[in-house]
Batch of 2 targets.
Target 1
Amino acid sequence: MTISYRKVFLLTAMILLAGCAQNREVPKLKSQVVELKQMLGTLTDQALALERQNRLNQNSTSGVYLLPAANSAARLQSSVGELSLSLNYVKNEANGSQAVMYVRTLSGQYLPGFNAIVEWGQLDAAGMPLTADAQSQNIQSRNSLLPKTEQVFELRLSGVTPQQLGYIRVHSIEPTASPR
């Protein structure tokens, strides 16, 4: 029986290369698992915040709560019609946070001018608003020459960082008087 050294060498090289290929995939798989765990954590946090937002709005009759972590719109039946409110682009600002709030009509009708109060603050451990330290500001939407179904507000939320900002509540929406 003769041993073909060339065949033995090729067989050994193939086994070694197969082992190397598997080892290259392990770090890639580990990084993908870490990435998936982070995504799952983010989705879990978002689902919890959305559940809290829905619970707060279920018990609210005069306004609507928006939780930045929920990343979801909320509906409000107001004196200017049924509205959808949502937050976006919450970021740091010099003395607090900055956010963009979208107010849209759900009926397809144009959005009349209105005044409202925006209140913000932190949540306690149970997910309830800490109203003792809450701050507020008035916002105003004016009638425009062209009918529109959406109004965008740039909010300046002093006193809380984006990480501390637990809720924004919009209430006391009243139509503005039309000039004659």
Note: The helical segments are 5-58.
Target 2
Amino acid sequence: MSTRSLLLALSIALLAAFGATATLSAGFANAADRSDILAEANDANEATIPIRAGNADLGFDHYAQKHNLTKYYVIQHAIRTAKPKTSGARVEYLVEYKHAKSKGKVDDRVTLHIVAQAATRTDDGRYKTPDNKNIGVITAYCEGRNTCPDWLRDLSG
């Protein structure tokens, strides 16, 4: 079997494993790209929560574009420090962040809300991971805002 045939067969197998009904965003060539794990964090319950490349519906591609959260650290920090709220395989993390420009006076605050799936498939069965690891972060956003502030996005460890 040629390398090209092998890659095509692998792509088809991944599409089938990840859900043929799942749509791809324009930025991703195949299912292997959107299922790539970009980063991970362990929560207080010792669950490993991946941050996957995703697509327009879930994962990094979804929340980075829609909610201005383009750096992994803030997501990882919230997962590591928040008390997880679980409902079946659904896990939510809420962390309040405060911003102070000068002299310690808080000039902005936001609550970061992260929704994750601690299972190998979504509840609706539409997505399944090809690597048998958790789906991970579905979305992340700042409550009460369309986009998170730049100062939150730019936090670093």
Note: The longest helix spans residues 3-18.
